[in-house]
Amino acid sequence: MVYTVTFNPALDYVMHRKGPLQPGETNRSSEEQICYGGKGINVSYVLGQLGVESTALGFIAGFTGRELERGVRDMGVRTRFITLPEGMTRINVKLKGETETEINAAGPAIDAASAEALMQAIDELREGDLLILSGSIPASMPADTYAVILERIAGRGISFAVDATGELLLKTLSYGPLLIKPNLAELCELFGVEQITREEIFTYARRLQEQGARNVLISLGPEGAALLSEDGKELFSPAASGKPVNTVGAGDSMLAGFLAEYLSSGDAREALLMGIAAGAATAFSPVLGTGEEIRRIREALK
Predict the structure, then answer these.
(1) pLDDT tens digit sequence for 177-193
(2) Within a domain: residue 234?
(3) What does the pLDDT average to over 135-162?
(4) pLDDT over threshold 90, residue 22
(5) Alpha-carbon distance 109 to 114, whole Å?
């Protein structure tokens, strides 16, 4: 079984507007939609679209939390959320017009008892399971939460993947993640450099592998993606052809696409291509990519 963790999920209220945003004036939208979001939830949805069952773990609160859980289940994702005693699940506002503007809420505080309830749920994972840790840690939780989780599952035959940045990611490497997925900007941040050329990508990826990561998948945006596989292969794929309309969730989709194929076939090259296809399917759509669209793009990739 695959498990994803979303510490701070959200209802994304997306408002589309024709023309520029006018600060200080009444702005009217031409279309609205609500998306049920969070990095781990996005991964679970795309995994499901590719035939991989998962359970989404995390925290919800208040009436917005109840609506988020309902919506996520309607998406076909199995959930096991911890309900917080106070606060409410956040609502993020996305304004889309000539430019995109986002207003992201802070989200509810996670009390110690609720945090321990999540840890106990993770304790129930079994040998052969995969745990996916995505995103940042809320300010109300210890900064070493990822490391605490990995210490609890260490030595139990549970693999894990990490999509995080900075020290949060670096502190997981000694536990041997199956996959990490920094983008190019995050790779620069990890090593304190302003720029990394395409020729240097695998040099830096290998340094992360030497610290414990098994597969290092680096998203290059419109340039595609690079993969240093656990058997040392250096693989690169250009991006799929198409017009991006939505970048939200594209990285999560790439992660899900890669893992869905890798868990099935163990083929790093095919996993890279499926990751590219899944990320593109979301980028070319106003919502998360569907299995049908992912497979169509995968067939078109060389």
Answers:
(1) 999 999 999 999 999 99
(2) yes
(3) 93
(4) no
(5) 10
- In whole angstroms, what is the distance from residue 252 CA to residue 46 CA? 8
Q: Distance between CA 274 and CA 55 in Å, rounded? A: 21
Q: CB–CB of 133/172 below 8 Å? A: yes
Please tell me whether residue 176 adopts helix, strand or coil conformation.
coil
pLDDT at residue 229 tops 80: yes
Reported in sequence order, the residue ranges of the chain that DSSP labels E, i.e. its strands, are 2-6, 10-16, 31-37, 54-60, 78-83, 90-96, 100-103, 130-134, 159-163, 179-180, 215-219, 225-228, 234-237
* 216: CATH: 3.40.1190.20
End-to-end alpha-carbon separation of the chain, Å? 31
Distance of CA 13 to the CA centre of its chain: 19
Kindly report, residue by residue over 24-67, the tens digit of the pLDDT.
Answer: 889 889 989 899 989 999 999 999 999 999 999 999 999 999 99
What is the residue range of 177's domain? 2-9+38-89+108-300
Active site residues: 252
Region 264-268: what's the mean pLDDT?
Answer: 95
> Would 231 be classed as within a structural domain?
yes
Supply the pLDDT for residue 83.
98
In a domain, 287, yes or no: yes
Parallel, antiparallel or unpaired: strands 54-60 and 2-6:
parallel
H/E stretch holding 21: none
Mean pLDDT of 226-230: 97
CA distance 4 to 135: 11
Chain mean position to CA 106 = 18
The predicted pLDDT at position 245 comes to 82
Angle at 99 between CA 97 and CA 101, to 5 degrees: 90
pLDDT digits (tens, 9 = 90+) for 142-154: 888 999 999 999 9
Report the number of distinct structural domains present in the chain. Answer: 1
Residue 102 resides in a domain: no
202 contacts 189 by C-beta, under 8 angstroms? no
